[in-house]
């Protein structure tokens, strides 16, 4: 499954977040894969596409970062999959 993860950095914690990332990397558990990410110009919000075997596996990753940011997780499908879903009626 793929997920859009909206990560809102806690005020005053962005430097700490990036330091942890530099020291420990993404800290992804087995079964979770980073696809890509984008950050707003104010460096306060990050949108990430992640792939995970389950929402529970993704939560394992979030638990390593939720002291520095708030997370919203939205299951997503590709545009092509959305088109197929709509046109096939499934």
Give a brief rundown of this model:
With about 90 residues, this protein is an alpha+beta fold. The chain has 3 helices and 4 strands.
CATH superfamily (homologous) name: Dimeric alpha+beta barrel
Question: Overall 3D geometry?
Answer: elongated
- Classify the beta-strand content into a percent band: 35-45%
Task: Please provide the count of β strands.
Answer: 4
Low-confidence stretches: none
Q: Provide the gyration radius in Å.
A: 15 Å
SSE order in H/E notation? EHEEHEH
Number of helical elements: 3
The largest sheet is: 4 strands, antiparallel
CATH topology: Alpha-Beta Plaits
Could you say what the CATH architecture is? 2-Layer Sandwich
Q: What count of structural domains?
A: 1
Please render the helix and strand layout as text.
Layout: E1 2-9, H1 14-24, E2 32-39, E3 45-52, H2 55-62, E4 69-76, H3 79-88
Antiparallel strand pairs: 1-3, 1-4, 2-3
């Amino acid at each position: 499954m793929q997920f859009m993860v909206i990560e809102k950095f806690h005020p005053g914690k962005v430097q700490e977040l990036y330091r942890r990332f530099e020291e420990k990397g993404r800290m992804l558990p087995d079964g979770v894969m980073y696809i890509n990410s984008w950050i707003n110009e104010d460096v306060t919000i990050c949108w990430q596409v992640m792939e995970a075997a389950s929402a529970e596996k993704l939560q394992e990753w979030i638990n390593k970062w939720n002291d520095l940011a708030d997370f919203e997780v939205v299951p997503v499908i590709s545009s092509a999959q959305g088109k197929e879903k709509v046109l096939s009626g499934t």
